[in-house]
Amino acid sequence: MFFFSCKCHKNSLTIEKLNVGLSGGNNYAQKSNQGGIEIFVTPSDSAISILKKLDVYSPLKDPITLSVKRKNNSVILTDKSGKEFALAFADSSEKNCNYSCKTSFYKEDKISFISHLAFFPYWHGFSALGGHPLFMRRHYYTLLIKKEDGKKLKMRWTYSVQKYKAYNSRRLKWSGDYCVDNGGGLTLLKITN
Length: 193
Known about the structure:
By secondary structure, the chain is mainly β. Helix content is 0%, strand content 51%.
């Protein structure tokens, strides 16, 4: 029987930088998103800060598809159903803005960016070294942008963190790294009016 002393971790993060690519794919052969969004995150004070960068890669069997285009000075995000959202403001003074633009969020937008660690772990298998059981926990990053007219964008990235025994210690900790091979990435895109 295994016992866990888990705490639910939830805190606000700061977005350092937003990069938007207006042409090309997201460099994953089996996915074909046009354009790309990269959000660079300021690590929090929490011990469970695991990422500094999020992009549009989707690990789902039916991957989330989206397109990014420039319309005047706006970067428009469009979902699979064709709903549009003005994600960011593009600097019109840039000469080569067909590929990638300097962008920033609109000042009037209400933006929240939350890091949330799930309360309960899930079974992941046995360790190759020592054969002890491995448990993981879901780690969610949620970006929510609300316009003055009530239109909302919600994007969520899901990763996993692994439980391990710290070196020279009997105390179990959650690791500070996310598992690249554990299917993490963009798992929700929702635009509502």
